[in-house]
Specification:
11 helices, two-stranded antiparallel sheet, elongated, 302 residues, single chain
Length: 302
């Protein structure tokens, strides 16, 4: 139901368009997107199952990997089933509460994943700097607390965002969101009310997480490389660096698509909306697909 307010409305639901400009290709697009989502789910569930049953993988790095697998399942599942519903059935209608919940899940768990990568950088530093005491420093309880801290940080950072939209932006110029999911800026740009506070908060949190976490991870690896250079033989240095290779690859897989998508969204005004939306979906699918491969390459049991 719509409540009219001059030329604006207070909608009880929104209409997602899918991939704007490519509506005629939605059925064909469902094939790669559906396949990628299925692969992401199977691979991450497999990681969880293998770590659960394989005793040799009951180590801090693989507990963090399980956290990544759960986060990746949440990120992909919060968007892909709805997107496939749009592709197959034209089911683009989404309630206001569901839209805000989807926005919260995406932003929150992306923030949590960044926090887990930071915790994994600390894990790699301890493993390289003091391997004999690695498991005594990073006990199961410590790993659990680090994961909980990353989750609480995500909730505290992102929790105000949907509340601000609900309370400060009650009316909209249109109920049609030119996107495949309730992306923050795609919703805010439809608001009739002053959205500057919401914009500033969303941008500030995004840059805070991206810049601070990236800087902290980079600082960890500076210390790791210093410790590696202090090892006696080249073979020992190479073997130690290989233990960090998977983590570095996973970090790049996570941060690079987000940075590219954010830069294009903010400054690529000449880029078509379909490219914006495709990139936004890919950065939610690429890490869930590739992370299990990255860690399986160096782990025989996986």
């Amino acid at each position: 139901m719509l409540t009219f307010h001059n030329i604006c409305w207070a909608p009880s639901s929104f209409q997602l368009t899918g991939i704007p400009g490519l509506e005629s290709q939605h059925l064909w697009l469902s094939i790669p997107f559906g396949s990628m989502y299925l692969v992401a789910v199977v691979r991450n569930v497999t990681i969880l199952a293998v770590v659960r049953v394989e005793c040799s993988l009951q180590q801090p790095m693989y507990f963090f990997l399980c956290m990544l697998a759960v986060i990746d399942l949440v990120l992909s599942t919060s968007t892909m089933p709805k997107l496939l519903g749009i592709f197959w059935f034209g089911a683009g209608d989404i309630g206001l509460a569901a839209c805000l919940a989807q926005m919260f899940l995406i932003r929150c768990f992306a923030t949590v994943e960044s926090g887990i990568f930071l915790a994994m950088a600390f894990d790699r530093y301890v493993a390289v700097r003091d391997p004999l005491h690695h498991t005594t420093v990073l006990t199961h309880a410590v790993v659990g607390r680090l994961g909980l801290a990353a989750l609480l940080r995500g909730v505290l950072y992102i929790g105000p965002l949907p509340l601000m939209i609900r309370l400060q932006l009650p009316i909209y110029k249109s109920r049609i969101i030119s996107h495949s999911y309730c992306e923050h800026m795609a919703v805010v740009t439809l608001a009739c009310s002053d959205s500057r506070v919401n914009n500033v908060y969303g941008l500030s949190i995004g840059f805070l997480v991206l810049i601070l976490d990236s800087a902290a991870i980079a600082a960890s690896y500076v210390m790791i490389f210093r410790a590696v250079m202090g090892l006696a033989t080249p073979e020992a240095r190479l073997k130690t660096l290989e233990t960090c290779g998977s983590h570095i690859c996973a970090i790049l897989i996570f941060y690079v698509p987000i940075a590219v998508s954010s830069l294009i969204h903010r400054f690529g005004h000449h880029v078509s909306p379909s490219i914006h939306t495709l990139l936004a979906n890919f950065y939610l699918l690429i890490p869930p697909i590739l992370n299990p491969i990255v860690y399986a390459v160096h782990t025989k049991q996986i």
